[in-house]
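REQUEST ID: PR-0412
SUBMITTED BY: lab tech R.K.
PRIORITY: routine
TASK: structure prediction, single protein chain
INPUT:
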Amino acid sequence: MSNAKSKPVIRVSYGILFWLFMIANLGGLLIEGFFCLFAYGKWESHVVTMWGPFCLLYGFGTVGFYLVAAALQGKGYWLEFIGHGLVGDGLEVIGGLLLEFGLGMRAWDYTDHFLNFRGYISLRMTIVWAVIGFAFGRFCPLISRGLSHFEHGIYRVLIIVLSVFMAVNMVFTAICITRWSRRHYGVKAESSFERFLDKTYDDEYMSKRFIEWHFLDEAKS
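STATUS: complete
OUTPUT:
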């Protein structure tokens, strides 16, 4: 019989990924808020949803890091390191393209970084995401064991309810942001629902909600 210890297993299931997504949405927002408070003397809440204190980029990014750690476990540190960097780059490229060409907006800009692509990604940020993802990967077996306890019983019901809520939240967010962009570029409301959005979620409200976002025809404040 072999005396070698078996390596910790990183389980992948919808329940684990969902709780990881939700925790990262909120946790990333809080970490960034405290960083801004101590670094710049003011709290900044970089939400990416209309309802609730959620930053979806942190949620999707953390899930991506977890999946890379699970898929590449035991296949070499360098491969995992590169995989995490590609996850960060992929999310920022997709997000940047959607903002620029879908909405005529931008939320971050790396054009002053060495070796950048359209300001969406850069060599510096690729390395940052790779380091963060690789460090996170060391804790994934522990995270897997911990979150596996919250997949059954009442937690299964919570997963279903919160999944529906987040799906509706993301769809409504997309609708509101799209209307904000169309309104900015002179497209008049064509329905009572669009007029409701214009009145309830006007430019001032949206600018305060999405504080880092700006339109391409405006200078960033």
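NOTES: The chain is about 65% helix and 5% strand.
REVIEWED BY: pending
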